[in-house]
Amino acid sequence: MDRTRALTLFLAVARAGSFSRAAIEAGLTPQAMSKAVRQLEEHLNVRLLHRTTRKLSMTDEGSRLFELADPGMRMLDEAIDQVHASREAAGGVVRVAAAASLGGKLLVPLIRDYQQRHPSVRFDVLLDDHFTDLVEARVDVGFRVGVSAERNVVARKLRDVRLVICASPAYIGENGKPASLAQLLKHRCTGFRHPNTGKTLPWELQKGGEIVYQAVPAVATFNDVATEVEAVRSGIGIGQLATYMVQQDLDDGTLVPLLPQLSSARLSVFMYYPQRTQMPSRVRRFVDFVIEANRR
Q1: What is the CATH number of the domain that holds 66?
Q2: What global pTM score does this model have?
Q3: How many structural domains does the chain have?
Q4: Quick one: CA dihedral 105, 106, 112, 113, positive or negative?
Q5: Does the structure show a pLDDT above 90 at 28?
Q6: Residue 20 sits in which domain range?
Q7: Contacts by 113-118 with C-beta closer than 8 Å and gap 24+?
Q8: Structure confidence by residue, pLDDT tens digits, 180-201
Q9: By CB count within 10 A, which of 89, 100, 204, 211 is most buried?
Q10: Helices and strands counted in the chain (H then E)
Q11: Phi, psi of 202 (to 5 degrees)
């Protein structure tokens, strides 16, 4: 016996004062209502209702059960209604996780533009270069850069990422442009130390249709992408940087691309989330907005 169902139907009969009226409200037959109440009586080993052809009334035990259970069931119904309303509401908090490098260049413009349309939505952003377990961290949507999506999540590829070798005009003016990889290795370069492993990453280069990895003479190594970008802008050395971080610099000449034939385009920016079904309205709308924004 489903005790919760039987109790719910008993309360409905007690409120309505009639099996037939309660059955109409519940979308069941009077016989099904009567059977559920009878099963509850058998389970409790007490009679809950006095039944006659003309009248239905509660026994003392039935009245006691009604007084104890009805307030709690109403609270449960109200809680379910509130959660349902919250799911359908456009406002509320969207919790987002992303790699630190995506915070300023990707997330801030998306949040700004989305809140212009939906000012009642608030964002709670977690920036972490580790892959975030959305369920464990209670995060709605995640963003990361990689070669493929993680398993057990729904993922959408947003854009390709090209790794561009570049330098500032000031550096080039003082040191010249390398014309080959051999010449590049004689220049001052910047490096990136992965925050998870602590290892300095080799540069990823495209050579003859293949991806190769090349250690470079790093005169300064950073574990923060934005700081490495600033170092290259300031002329410390040549860097290999992701286009989503420096596209504006390349467009306005703040940075100059070098050896474009070596640029790698293996990575992508992904958005990921636990599932599409049962997603709160505020999260679903933000996901749809991000997808649409990256089609332009």
Answers
A1: 1.10.10.10
A2: 0.64
A3: 3
A4: positive
A5: no
A6: 3-88
A7: 113/289, 113/293, 114/286, 114/289, 117/289, 118/90, 118/91, 118/282, 118/285
A8: 999 999 999 999 988 778 889 9
A9: 204
A10: 12, 13
A11: -70, 160
